[in-house]
Specification:
The protein has three helices and ten strands, in the order βββαβββαβαβββ.
Length: 127
């Protein structure tokens, strides 16, 4: 899944990101969901994870909860959906990313959290 371009010392990552989910903390999830449903034309899918209540609405992941629990979710810039999570994590790590949280199961599939070599922290989700 990687290939060397014209320069032997340059590695190009070939991980396909299928979608990007924007994370947004809200004070009142029940009040916020109808706005995002109207905005996106999508119905919310609600769930809880690690003490945080969440709602997935189109390309948005809304979340609310106590500050302590929310900080774990808020520290991630976005969620990247990939077709092959194992390959994506391997490729990102080979390109210099640091694994913050290894692959683990979640209510919606599997996930890993990586810090990219230039500072961004992203959640990768996929099968």
């Amino acid at each position: 899944m990687t290939f060397a371009g014209a320069y032997e010392d340059v590695m190009v990552l070939i991980v396909t990101i299928d979608s990007v989910v924007v994370r947004q903390r809200v004070e009142d999830l029940d009040a916020a969901v109808p706005f995002y449903e109207e905005l996106t034309g999508s119905s919310a899918s609600r769930f809880t994870f690690a003490g945080v209540t969440l709602a997935s609405v189109g390309p948005f992941l809304l979340f609310a909860g106590p500050d302590e629990a929310v900080q774990r979710v808020a520290g991630v810039a976005a969620t990247l959906t990939v077709a092959d999570l194992d390959a994506a994590v391997e490729e990102a790590e080979a390109g210099g990313a640091e694994i913050v949280m290894p692959i683990q199961p979640t209510p919606n599939g599997r996930r890993a959290v990586l810090r990219h070599p230039y500072g961004g922290v992203f959640e990768y989700v996929g099968p």
